């Protein structure tokens, strides 16, 4: 078959008349089969144009705006963290921590207020699919074990981090303030931001599993310490998964607050 | 700089731009006599040998896209001929860049718009892999540098009484000889681990970007932004270092996210 084609070269396409390159079995212009395989591949050039990715499509615009909003939220969180780091370097009291929590709270409340539908469905009672309770219990146990192991290993690898409560204890702040600022506030506001706002927005673009991974990655790096990127990524994965399974933010908030409280209690 | 478009087997458009000279446009080797001015506002219009209308436009680019001209023939965007010959994604036969179908297997080739989006996604994923290699090399470099820098100090400390208290260090703390020794021993390893984690994160994202480009580039962009800020906080001098590379990487990420989103929207 091929010999017969090369023998008659150059020849033109039976479909559109375009001159064919040597030994073509199909016309590169119109897709017409050129070697007697039959006319099953005769295609109309007008109808086969592949859908070009359009960057002024309404769906694209909406999604691109969502990504820009997430970038803005994340950027403002970064600004808060920078503010905390700079303030903490010359103010040894726990005040920077307090300002940081207030700043984060204002930012996320503003985002949620302007876009309440994004997280409204997640503020209801946790809804469990029948029979998924054992699965969730196992995941929580594995999650706690992995995190425990990671933070147990860190000092053994020669990495020491400052105790979370040190500044509070040095400044004689009441115990309640330590728990509010280190356990409860981050649990509420980080869950609202990462598992609530970011995950819900991303979920509509890329689907549930990738959304869990994206918010976990952002949650991990937002903590500003490369050595805990991995542990907090796992933490974010666990919390994101629980939020997807229970369709509510409250179990995640509870888990997050409990974990932070455990870490705190170990320091006393 | 020369850009060549093989519109089809019989039409070749070439644009050559040299410093201090106005650009020259040639069709099938014949230079157009009119003076060419590339601008985002007005297209340069001319005709191909077969009478089809062609227009050359410099798009209003975002950072790195700035200045790469676009050729449209009868309104259809054209792909410039790359240095390496293009292959059919299905049968790996060599194809011309603007073929609509593979001449060997009849596979439908992507449109120019889709081709450019795919390229942008690919460049962003290459940037992720590049950052991974960079962090790995930085980690090894820092490790070796700190090791050799601390070697004489360690040798000196080894000769002294471990319980002797050293004069106040730069950070305001006081150390005994034994504590200072341990610090100097550990610091290179900590540095190596931090960069190791970053290299690991980027490598993971580069692998993940094959399956989920949008998600991986989003997380990579967030991570990169955090790292710039983090290194800037540690040492404000680093913000200015390699600022062009940083802008380029961020631009590649933003364009990659936009392109991946456009492809996702078109495929849905």
Walk me through what this model shows.
The complex is a heterodimer of chains A (268) and B (268). Chain A has 268 residues and is mainly α. Chain A has two domains: 1-44, no CATH class; 58-266, no CATH class. In chain A, helix 4 (95-114) runs parallel beside helix 8. Helices cover 66% and strands 0% of the residues of chain A. Chain A is built from eleven helices and no strands. Mean pLDDT of chain A is 84; it is low at 1-9 and 38-51. The N and C termini of chain A lie far apart (85 Å). With 268 residues, chain B is α+β, with helices and mostly antiparallel strands. Chain B folds into two domains: 1-8 and 56-109, no CATH class; 116-267, no CATH class. Helices cover 48% and strands 14% of the residues of chain B. Chain B has four helices and ten strands. In chain B, the strands form three sheets. Chain B has a four-stranded antiparallel β-sheet with strand order 1-2-3-4, with no helix packed on it. In chain B, helix 1 runs antiparallel to helix 2 and helix 3 runs antiparallel to helix 4. The longest helix of chain B has 47 residues, at 112-158. The two termini of chain B are 38 Å apart. The mean pLDDT of chain B is 86.
Which descriptors would you attach to this protein?
heterodimer; A: about 270 residues; mainly alpha; 2 domains; 11 helices; elongated; disordered N terminus; B: about 270 residues; alpha+beta; four-stranded antiparallel β-sheet; 4 helices
């Amino acid at each position: 078959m091929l010999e017969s084609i090369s023998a008659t070269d150059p020849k033109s396409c039976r479909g559109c008349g375009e001159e064919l390159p040597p030994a073509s079995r199909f016309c590169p212009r119109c897709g017409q089969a050129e070697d007697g395989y039959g006319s099953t591949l005769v295609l109309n050039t007008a109808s086969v144009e592949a859908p070009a990715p359009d960057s002024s499509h309404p769906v694209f615009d909406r999604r691109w705006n969502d990504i820009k909003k997430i970038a803005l939220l994340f950027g403002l969180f970064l600004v808060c963290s920078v503010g905390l780091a700079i303030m903490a370097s010359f103010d040894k009291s726990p005040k920077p921590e307090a300002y940081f929590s207030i700043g984060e709270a204002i930012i996320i409340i503003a985002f949620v207020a302007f876009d309440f539908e994004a997280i409204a469905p997640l503020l209801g009672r946790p809804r469990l699919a029948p029979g998924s309770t054992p699965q969730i219990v196992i995941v929580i146990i594995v999650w706690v074990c992995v995190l425990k192991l990671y933070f147990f290993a860190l000092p053994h690898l020669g990495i020491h981090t400052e105790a979370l409560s040190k500044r509070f204890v040095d400044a004689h702040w009441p115990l309640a303030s330590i728990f509010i600022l280190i356990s409860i506030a981050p649990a509420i506001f980080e869950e609202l931001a990462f598992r609530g706002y970011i995950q819900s927005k991303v979920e509509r673009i890329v689907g549930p599993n990738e959304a869990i991974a994206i918010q976990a990655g952002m949650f991990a790096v937002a903590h500003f310490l490369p050595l805990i990127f991995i542990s907090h990524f796992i933490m974010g994965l666990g919390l994101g998964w629980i939020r997807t399974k229970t369709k509510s933010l409250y179990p995640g908030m509870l888990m997050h607050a409990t974990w932070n409280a455990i870490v705190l209690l170990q320091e006393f | 700089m020369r850009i060549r478009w093989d519109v089809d087997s019989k039409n070749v458009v070439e644009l050559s731009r040299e410093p201090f000279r106005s650009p020259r446009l040639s069709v099938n080797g014949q230079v157009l006599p009119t003076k060419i001015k590339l601008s985002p506002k007005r297209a340069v219009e001319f005709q191909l040998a077969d009478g089809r209308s062609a227009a050359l436009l410099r798009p209003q680019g975002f950072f790195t896209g700035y200045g790469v001209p676009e050729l449209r023939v009868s309104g259809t965007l054209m792909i410039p001929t790359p240095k390496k010959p293009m292959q059919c994604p299905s049968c790996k036969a060599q194809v011309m860049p603007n073929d609509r179908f593979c001449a060997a297997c009849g596979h439908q080739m992507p449109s120019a718009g889709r081709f450019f989006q795919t390229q942008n996604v690919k460049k962003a994923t290459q940037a992720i892999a590049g950052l991974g290699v960079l962090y790995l090399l930085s980690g090894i470099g820092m490790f070796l540098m700190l090791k050799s820098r601390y070697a004489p100090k360690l040798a000196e400390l080894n000769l002294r009484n471990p319980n002797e208290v050293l004069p106040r260090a730069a950070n305001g703390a006081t150390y005994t000889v034994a504590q200072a020794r341990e610090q100097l021993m550990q610091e290179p390893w900590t540095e190596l681990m931090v960069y190791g984690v970053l290299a690991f994160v980027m490598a993971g994202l580069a692998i993940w970007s094959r399956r989920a480009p949008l998600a991986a580039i989003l997380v990579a962009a967030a991570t990169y932004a955090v790292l710039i800020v983090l290194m800037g906080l540690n040492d404000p001098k680093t913000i200015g270092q390699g600022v062009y590379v940083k802008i380029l990487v961020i631009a590649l990420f933003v364009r990659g996210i936009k392109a991946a989103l456009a492809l996702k929207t078109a495929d849905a």
